[in-house]
Amino acid sequence: MKKQIAVLLGLALSAASLAYANTSLTVYTALEADQVDAYKAAFQKLNPDIDIRFVRDSTGVITAKLLSEKDHPQADAVWGLAATSLMILKQQGMLQGYTPKGADKLSRPFVDSSKPAQWTGMDVWAATICFNTVEAAKKHLPVPQTWADLTQPVYKGQIVMPHPASSGTGYLDVSAWLQLMGQKQGWAYMDKLHNNIAQYVHSGSKPCSMAASGEYPIGISFEYRGAELKSQGAPIALIFPKEGLGWDLEATAIVKGTKNLAAAQKLADFSASLPAMQLYQKSYAVLAMPGVAQPNPNLPRDYAKRLIKNDFGWAAQNRDAILQEWSRRYESKAAPKS
């Protein structure tokens, strides 16, 4: 009898182990496409019993998808989405509180203030102008030094930027301009800039890629894509406007109601760990964990000091109203959605 019980117990434990070994974690992300595989491999090397199934798109698309699934969530976790988007999900009661192991080693502004935390920051991405020096020379375009410079008539039809409803980069631009200039002057600035915009595209990195290929001489984008393309030999200069740079945090969170909570917590733990930060530093110059980031030869050494004083709470709370007003004014130049 004891032998039979032992056999049955062994079978039960084996079945439980097999079930956990086959845990599939659905993770929504706005990470760049060329980052996803490396991030997945690094996590699964330490957690071979958990398989990540990424659902990837631009920030605005992923945010809208999560909100549309509020009553029937499909994601277990979010890894690499704007903190301003996660703040909206937090307001909607959609996130599972969990403070990752090692979160005390992260800079305080990178961790949600709730206890337990509902999201945990990873890294900073910020606005950058990608300027094709070859194409600009052909068209006799001066090098812009400020955001204000981009409204000069000489740049008419020469600029592409991300659509803020689709792209987190686009939204951090619009939010930053409104914070830097105030509501009245911010919208007046964007009215003038709109005159020079050729197209609003549905990706934060695409404007820089378009500038690098010469499709347009100027792309408002973000520093990771610009630095990467420049290091690959693209004829672009990276310009960091003197007024200051809009920025946001990439962050991780667990979706409330997940049936794979233990696995999602392991993902959150990894995202806040040193191995993950060492992975992030390959792309970003400002990280949640101090002392890990390395200088990037394509970025200024005082890069972190150029970031504006960003009110994330305001940006999250006013996102819908800002996007509605932006669309009313500028949607006519939006690129078709593929």
Write a structural description.
The longest helix is centred in the first third of the chain and has 20 residues, at 2-21. Strands 1, 2, 3, 4, 5, 6, 7, 8, 9 and 10 form a 10-stranded mixed beta sheet that branches. The chain contains 13 helices and 10 strands. It folds into 2 domains: 2-124 and 248-280, D-Maltodextrin-Binding Protein, domain 2 (3-Layer(aba) Sandwich); 125-247 and 303-333, D-Maltodextrin-Binding Protein, domain 2. Helix 6 crosses helix 7. It has helices spanning 2-21, 33-46, 59-68, 83-91, 133-138, 168-181, 183-196, 206-213, 223-231, 261-271, 274-280, 312-317, 319-330; strands at residues 23-29, 50-56, 77-82, 95-96, 120-132, 159-162, 197-201, 218-222, 236-239, 247-255. It has 338 residues and is of the alpha/beta class.
